[in-house]
Amino acid sequence: MENFKMFTTNFVEMSENELSLLQEVFQPIKVKKMDHVFSAGSYVTELFFFDSGVFRAYALKDGEEFTTKFLFGPTIYAELFSIRKHQPTFINIQALSDCECYKANFIAIERLMIHHPGIRRLFLKLYENIYMTGVKRQVSFMIDSQAKRYTDLIAENPKILEQVPLQYIASFLGVKPETLSRIRKNNNDI
């Protein structure tokens, strides 16, 4: 978990003891390119730290995949709907590259939050960030053109075209692959 401290420092400063206690609850898991960290229909009880690699979150409807999010390590991900509602998730998380991953029992994380204010602040800041990112995406789908969503995505992550297949980018933007090709041609990205 070499990037864990760097990642958490982006949100909050924790004591060395808090950082150590938090790291101790994470266990490595093996995830290779195109493997799923978890799939729709499973009950998720863990929080994940993606140390390195690229992942996509997607949902299936009538056999069609709808990419909802890209995750670039280092980052933390929790499938809160499944964890909180004790229901199967409708989300799939798939690795798009070889990666380093860790998981921690969500209840163990919550226990640490009770007694360690730095850990509590970290997760408050993470949840704020997740909320703001989600609202930004919703608003973008309401007011931005497809081309603007594309240029904003490239501006936020210039290397995404090297790391993520175009069909997943098209799905994330809510366009068909041929529409993405036209947008890219108009932006001279091809």
Automatic annotation (TrEMBL):
Signal peptide: none annotated. SMART domains: cNMP (SM00100). Residues 10-130 form the Cyclic nucleotide-binding domain. Pfam families: cNMP_binding. PROSITE patterns: CNMP_BINDING_3. This is Crp/Fnr family transcriptional regulator. It comes from Flavobacterium aureirubrum.
